[in-house]
Design a protein that fits this description.
CATH architecture of the largest domain: Orthogonal Bundle
Bound molecules: heme C
Helix content: 55-70%
Distance between the termini: 81 Å
Shape: globular
CATH topology of the largest domain: Cytochrome Bc1 Complex, Chain D, domain 2
Structural class: mainly alpha
Number of helices: 6
CATH superfamily of the largest domain: Cytochrome c-like domain
CATH class of the largest domain: Mainly Alpha
Largest sheet: none
Oligomer: single chain
Order of helices and strands: HHHHHH
Number of domains: 2
Length: 158
């Protein structure tokens, strides 16, 4: 009997502690809030480590279409579409998505995304589907820019 009661008591004790701590924690944050206004939005270009991760961008922007495959979007987590793209190479595929292609709006419809964040999201989706594309480094970003220029030229000539 003791053996079964002990864990239960421990859980109850923890729950009780939580209840005691929460209100005071809330009071502290409330009290501190007016004293510290939010920082002014004067910051210049974000440092590299402030960029969103590929997964974060995917969840905020790309998931809307790439989770279910809206309009033929290659699905995250499913090798099918991405295996076909893998042969085209990371730079070209990222650039084509960035510029926009058929049902894929430029930048996924988010004008405020940086190329690096977009490229990270593309690489993250590819990895989720078993295609081993790393987050872009400087050389990859340059290669993507080159592909972007080629793509824009080709689109002009149509
Ligand atoms: C409004 C829906 C939509 C959103 C949002 C969206 N995509 Fe897409 N995406 C598509 C569709 C549809 C395709 C397939 C286009 C085709 O090949 O016909 C596609 C294709 C792509 C491709 C492959 C390009 C190629 O070469 O075929 C990449 C890369 C891509 N998307 C990246 C992204 C990323 C990264 C995001 C988020 C930042 C995103 N997409 C958000 C609809 C979307």
């Amino acid at each position: 009997m003791k053996r079964t009661l002990f864990p239960l008591l421990a859980v109850l004790a923890l729950a009780a502690c939580g209840q005691q701590e929460n209100p005071s924690a809330a009071t502290r944050t409330e009290a501190a809030a007016p004293a510290s206004p939010p920082p002014a939005p004067e910051a210049a270009a974000p440092a590299a480590d402030m960029l969103k991760s590929g997964e974060a961008v995917y969840k905020q922007v790309c998931l809307a279409c790439h989770a279910s495959g809206v309009a033929g979007a290659p699905k995250a987590g499913e090798p099918g579409g991405w295996a076909a793209l893998a042969g085209e190479g990371q730079a070209a595929v990222t650039a084509h998505g960035w510029v926009g292609i058929r049902g894929m709006p430029p930048k996924g419809g988010r004008a405020d995304l940086s190329l690096e964040e977009f490229a990270r999201a593309t690489a993250w989706m590819a990895r989720s589907a078993g295609v081993d594309w790393p987050d872009p480094d400087a050389a990859m970003l340059e290669a993507i820019r080159k592909e972007e220029a080629l793509r824009r030229e080709a689109l002009k000539q149509r």
